[in-house]
């Protein structure tokens, strides 16, 4: 009886097989999966969007909002890439695979990116792996600290640094994610997340002697493009668009980036959802293909997302309870709000294991830091526990730039000349607009400002939260 039922079922299945084989998406034997989503814009059809005008506008608004939150970090990195790689009129134009070196410490006029440190010399290079691997050679050094901080186009960081490779240096082959070749003997593989990479090199410098050593290190680090690849100035056949303000300029760049660099594993469904606004269609992004109502909905979604991200800048990280935020840099996963907000505040955010940092815009009572109305003291009862060095740096809250002052002093650190340390080892930092009668003065503007503590090579007690910065205290008597 049982055998008979199996026989009848098998006969029924045989009758169905020709029908299954006749469908293009289920033609393979044993394929019981649902068909994949269409790979092109035209494959979706008109049912991709609601026909009701209000519903259509609402959906386009939402998609544009999400695309802005998702890709803003890539857009900001692309702005810098375009200046250095494609804009031949730019001051720091190099093309791909070449360094631009800053030979002096950053000051108020530093323009490469916002919120720079003034602890290290910077060098920047954009690497193109679309035509093959590129080698990086790092010399042995006696510098106190160095890193080649490598970012994918979305701002996800990694490091070839004294923390990760030691002070002996080495040779490293940067390869695309799916590369399967064999590196030369003695060369280690660095597998990149995207074909276009930003290298932000930092070399410790404080004294004149340090600066000379850092410059020598800059010159000794080499980018080697294998023979036959050439010095790339383009990525494949794609035409890189110039960055431009507004939703249209943003979406042109996002479309280029996704075509040139792809996206993280696990993001296929999210990125596919951007197609109704013209991203990753059969042709490059074309605003002329958008109706006036669609364009208005997309503009409003972009504007709303950008406003939300901008408002969130002052709440970076986790509150410590003393006004400071512990900035969770560099580890984003699928948290696109964090990724975008941190990169809006400033590019080059590294992982905490390399540089633990804390930011505050307020004093210990939650009042906005303002040099026009108040004087402050930051008392470090125990200085930040580090293996390398620490610094307390002040920035203008309106410009996110270092504040110009008569002393040309933008930070107080464990290397500040004439640093006054109390008998118990504590350090008082006076933060105010006018010079105090004495002490460690960190000049502030006559207006709002914010402060960043950076700890290079943080020790475990900093990483595990046992050390936290104390509140900035407003001094009695106003200014």
Automatic annotation (TrEMBL):
Chain ranges of the DUF1254 domain: 96-223
Every DUF1214 domain range: 355-459
Signal sequence segment: 1-27
UniProt keywords, alphabetically: Signal
UniProt cross-references to PANTHER family, sorted A to Z: BLL3101 PROTEIN
Name by which UniProt lists this protein: DUF1254 domain-containing protein
